[in-house]
TrEMBL record:
PROSITE patterns: TONB_CTD (PS52015). Residues 49-148 form the TonB C-terminal domain. SUPFAM superfamilies: TolA/TonB C-terminal domain. This is Energy transducer TonB. InterPro entries: TonB_C. It comes from Sphingobacterium hotanense.
């Protein structure tokens, strides 16, 4: 009996402490990853015109640098960006590139598309939060054709759109 009461008090105390801590966190400045399984979104951030339209816009804005085309280099380029609490894309950064300006070209494409696409901000626990999304692009240049058509494609944007 004493063990049960002690266990109950210990559990209640931990739950209470956790509750107090979560109230002290200002979720308006919290940054979460779009695919974090530990975050339960009331609403996930999403482009107002739709994910396909945003992807299409980034893909059409992305220009493979001539140095990459001339080298015949292929590979994966990846960038991350934040969707802030106002639904605006900010802080676009290169996570992986194949060199010769390829990462910078993707950053420009995302930034340009971000100017044309407003997003619905994410909500966690009733508060708007910043969410980090990633976009991988695969550049596949074969030796026979070094034109830009069909050389890059945005495969997946991380997140639940």
């Amino acid at each position: 009996m004493k063990g049960s009461i002690l266990t109950y008090l210990l559990f209640f105390g931990l739950a209470f402490t956790h509750e107090v801590k979560s109230q002290e966190v200002d979720t308006s400045i919290m940054i979460v990853d779009a695919i974090d399984p530990n975050v339960i979104f009331d609403q996930q951030s999403a482009p107002l015109k739709g994910e396909k339209a945003f992807r299409r816009d980034v893909n059409s804005s992305f220009t493979i640098p001539k140095a990459v085309i001339n080298s015949g280099r292929s590979g994966k380029i990846e960038a991350a960006f934040l969707v802030d609490t106002a639904g605006v894309i900010t802080d676009v950064v290169i996570l992986q590139d194949i060199g010769s300006g390829s990462g910078e070209a993707l950053v420009r494409a995302i930034s340009n598309a971000g100017k044309r696409h407003k997003w619905v901000p994410a909500v966690v626990d009733g508060k708007k939060v910043k969410v980090r999304h990633t976009i991988p692009v695969t550049v596949n240049l074969n030796s026979q054709s070094r034109t830009q058509s069909n050389q890059s494609s945005i495969r997946n944007m991380s997140g639940n759109f």
